[in-house]
Amino acid sequence: MTPKLVADIEPPYYTAVFTSVRTETPEGYAETGVRMREIVGGIPGFLGYESARTPGGIAISIAYFRDLESLDAWRLDSEHQAAKARGREHWYDSYSVHIGKVERSYSFERE
Description:
Blueprint: E1 13-22, H1 29-41, E2 46-53, E3 58-65, H2 68-76, H3 78-91, E4 92-102
Antiparallel strand pairs: 1-3, 1-4, 2-3
Helix pairs in contact: 1-3
Domain ABM: 20-85
InterPro entries: ABM_dom (IPR007138), Dimeric_a/b-barrel (IPR011008), Jasmonate_Hydroxylase-like (IPR052936)
Protein name: Antibiotic biosynthesis monooxygenase
């Protein structure tokens, strides 16, 4: 089965690009990830997400939001803030966050 990409979103919209390198301490990481997907999925204006991990250990997650208000609702969510603090304490050696406004977008899918 081919993974499904987030596509066909009418611009403008916003992205939150999270790149990270994890530690060797995964306790609670997977469960927290499931919970974060539940929370962000309930935010009005959340459009979807994609993620990937390189063999070398760099992870990239991109979340798509209709507007800055919905992105801020995610950023300010108390459970998300607690997960970010736990990530800094236990799960990440480093990470970067990049916020962008998408003004043009297109996609291709083989039939």
